[in-house]
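Structural prep section.
Before we set up the soaks we want a predicted structure of the protein with S-adenosyl-L-homocysteine in place, mainly to decide which crystallisation condition to try first. Input record follows.
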Amino acid sequence: MVEKMLPFKKNDTFKLKIEAMGSDGMGIGKHEGVVIFVPLTAVGDEIEVKIVKLQKNFAFGIISKMLSESKDRVPVDCPYFNQCGGCVYRHISPESENNIKAERVKDCIERIGGFSFADGSIEFEGIEGGTRYNYRNKAQIPLGLDKNNKLIMGYYAKHSHRIVDNKKCLLHPEIFNSIIDVFRDWYEQFGDSVYNEETHKGVLRHLYLRVGEKTGDILFCLVINGDKVKNLDKLAGMLKMNIPEIKSFVLNINKEKTNVILGTKERIIFGEEHIKDILCGRVFNISPLSFYQVNRKQAEKLYNKAKEYADLKENETLLDLYCGAGTIGLSLINETNKLIGVEIIPDAIENAKKNAKENGIENAEFICGDASDAAKILSDRGEKPDVIIVDPPRKGLDSTLIDTVSKMSPKRVVYVSCDPATLGRDLKIFSEKGYLTKKVKAFDLFPGTSHVETVCLLDRQANVI
Ligand code: SAH
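Run finished without errors. Recording the tokens verbatim:
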């Protein structure tokens, strides 16, 4: 039935020119007006496409033959690229990747947000690209067994839960690959059973690694379905002997049948529960459950831009909504400022309080709760922040939160976003409440992948009370 609506069928092949990139990194071409998404292509590619999946108004295809390659293409540097779902842009140049991401941000702000960069009312300050190598300070690696019952560890294949065994991920710091080797070695000699998502049986679920790049401290966290691991002492011994940088070994207990990686219970095997890193000249303690940007170098640039946009003056108050471990707010303020941070994860709030203390910041209050609820409470108690920063997860902001923030009447709002589409949607609502977006800058914190971060400055209009 579905097939009748489209001018082609599954398994048909025909010539297709790739004209744009979709938000998830797939190339887009059109055939008789119908959009076709093709992975691993580049703008300018001329291919023979084979249709593999039909939807109501569009289709998915694969390259069956390359006819003429895009000039954006570069040789692929990773042997896992074609299968692994981690990266989508290793086959095009970093400049092309930057252009795609910058255009996506601009497009969402214009098309969804209703702004126009051409008329000069809003300025796009470009994109800050970064290296595609070794930038991640965190890895969450699922464990599984192949059909011969051998351990496999790596990222999932695109749009699936099939693990692609990866011996050397280019996004990881080298030391993560060494740690993974030690873990594989322990597993071969002494390992416990491996978790199976379908049967919900087996113990070893995920490896979760984090490095504080500036301190070199490493957290090794093993996520398990159960309370104990066989020969855990041997693993601890092997890790200590081979990787002295591992300062903490934590067991995270996750017995739920869920895609969520971390459970809420933890047991420390050795060291402290958190690691330390230094960002924007301040020290931060980060626990496994606390959010911390995975690309420290790029995050620092992003926070500096947020600082410039916030433009906090002496004695002003900053409200940092979705504050995580307090990283943005604590990086921005000086001793005359007051900071209020709001965050839903209790461990992150504990980190934020400790982080304020360790940086000698006394004028900071951190509230654990939902950002919308907390903003309402703060507003009711008469808080009048001069600047409000929001840094929500991908789903963006509730319209009630936008309403509360606008009613608090800050001079400026700084919006840090990890999803250009929800950003566009929210900027439009802000503009209806009297907060107009003036400046936008994109930062690539995830080179090689389809993700991009954006920072926006929103100014209060004169007619807002
Ligand atoms: N600003 C921080 C964290 C940003 S990530 C940094 O730059 O490091 C988004 C944060 O929002 C996460 O810490 C997440 O736990 C938190 N969060 C998610 N939903 C929330 C909600 N409804 N209310 C408050 N915080 C929330």
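Observations: The longest helix spans residues 94-112.
Flagged for discussion at group meeting.
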